[in-house]
What we know:
This protein is an alpha+beta fold. The protein is built from ten helices and ten strands. The chain is globular and about 60 Å long.
Amino acid sequence: MICSIVPPYMLRRIAAQSEPRLWAVARAAKESLLHIKDLQAVRAAPAPSTPPSAVAAQPGPPKRTIYDADTSENLPGRVVRKEGAPPVGDAATDEAYDGLGSTHRLYAEIFGRDSVDGAGLALDATVHYGNLYDNAFWDGNQMVFGDGDGEIFQRFTKSVSVIGHELAHGVTQFTAGLNYRNQAGALNESMSDVFGVLVEQYLKKETTEQASWLIGEGLFTDKVQGAALRSMKAPGTAYDDDILGKDPQPDSMDTYVRTSADNGGVHINSGIPNRAFYLVAAELGGNAWGVPGQIWYGTLTSGSLPPACTFGKFAKATAATAEELFGVGSVEHDAVLKAWETVKVKV
């Protein structure tokens, strides 16, 4: 399963640009679109989940290796930094190393999970992938980061939420195994957004009120009218730009997008469950990696989610997790019910 951070609808907007100054950018976007499509065709089969017996009893230290593709598309590339080695002075390499560590730390310290598979999987990442490559992705085995085109996107290691987002696809792969299509795919994307922002918030020790709730903040150059790829707090408001257009994410089922593009709208419709998580966190206050994070993580790893899970089934599962952890009628349980009601998903 190839899961990329930049939505295809955004890349298509860039690829359609015809101004001479944007020719290189448009070409880069077209190549990124074709590349992800080709990779998905090659790696269509889902990876198996981790057997319960393989899950470590206690999290161990991270095992990171950073590779450099030197602008090629050959993976993994040459080793440039291994676990415990000092910074090398290359921004992408050191940001990737630190971001992998921050992600490992959240799962270990907050959820008691040992790496993305729960059994100490080594965390590998390749930087400087491709020429002007406008994306970052999890390929089922490792992280891959492009450097961006310099006009729209900067290097993709700049955002901790992007690193946390992509590694969370690995966690979903090894737990619920949600299909990457339709509502299950949108939930897959949403789970990555949830844990992506939690990695960033835990690193910065931000409360729900202090956090930006943006995915990919800092990725855009200063030429773009926008703050990030997505907003969990207010889906549909992350950007409004002449080239990129307006953020198309819906914030409730009232504006759910029915489409065959993007595997049935996995990046667009993720705004609905994203907002539900934010609303739970806002209602309860404090740190989102606490109670809200425990409810969502508990649901993801419960074994109760079918691969073709719908928003309704997921909402019911989060309510059941909240009930199990805190009881019927608890403020936590009520916050979950209220959040799903607000985004018009029936529990």
